[in-house]
């Protein structure tokens, strides 16, 4: 009887251990599923704006918001700069056959506000919003679109023109082609200046997914000696962003800028060819600048403009926080939006937010309130 009783106790203990192990496994699985659920929701891409608290609350030099209402005003230029009419914005833009083929396919359409967009329509809408913001902030400036000769673009807006440049505009080579197009364009400007040297026009080369929210003429007025200006951030691997490049319109500055970009293109084509689809241009920019022994890269850590001579080219470095500010994705940015921000860059998965921002501005006509919308909704992914 003792043997049987001992056997029963052993079976009971083994069964208890199995049940407890199974119970703990189920509890752990349930716990992990709860932990993963918010992560999945965080990565979810929304088809509408989701407003949250605006970063930078309580900081005197940051935009303060209550919902989409600005509690303080951005330092927008009250008077138009004398440089306004002598500035031309340049962007590279092309249309791919795959986008045109989707014109009749409504299954992939995206709704933004009261409008429905296919892939082609989304691209054109973003280009038009890019132009619209420039017309609001700098109504006397011009826009030139560098594009593939085979692109059938139609942009019926005042002070906007197309400039066709032959090249390789495939997605894999577009960033390389962009630098080539910039160089070709600058060469044509040099030729025109040789015929009329008094016709000075300054140039700002940008991505087409930016919003100019303040007059940029002060760059050329406040910094009269630079040849070419770049925007920087505190990022060790990629401190320079290629989405905003300013060039003074004098013959010497254009020539120096052309030579600098030719050096960037050379480095891009040799050292970073594998990154030709994206990032290679920024890596090449950083290499050309940081490879100079006298250059102090620690200055990228402070958001203060500074100048440096790079092989005879006078470079002006402008902080991204003002001239290339990007809405945060996730909780990565806690310092909010500077009051004197000039340019908002809707790169990556922020394209919908660019269209939503223009729609909001069209109904409110208030830049500061629109910036609150951007600041409050920049914590969610809004890709098309």
Automatic annotation (TrEMBL):
Keyword flag Signal: yes
Keyword annotations of the record: Signal
Gene3D superfamilies: Spore Coat Polysaccharide Biosynthesis Protein SpsA, Chain A (3.90.550.10)
Keyword Signal included in the entry's annotation: yes
Entries under InterPro entries matching the protein: Nucleotide-diphossugar_trans (IPR029044)
Regions crossing the membrane: none
Signal peptide from the UniProt entry: 1-23
PANTHER family reported in the protein's UniProt record: POLYPHOSPHATIDYLINOSITOL PHOSPHATASE
Record's protein name: Nucleotide-diphospho-sugar transferase
Organism: Flemingia macrophylla
Taxon lineage: Eukaryota, Viridiplantae, Streptophyta, Embryophyta, Tracheophyta
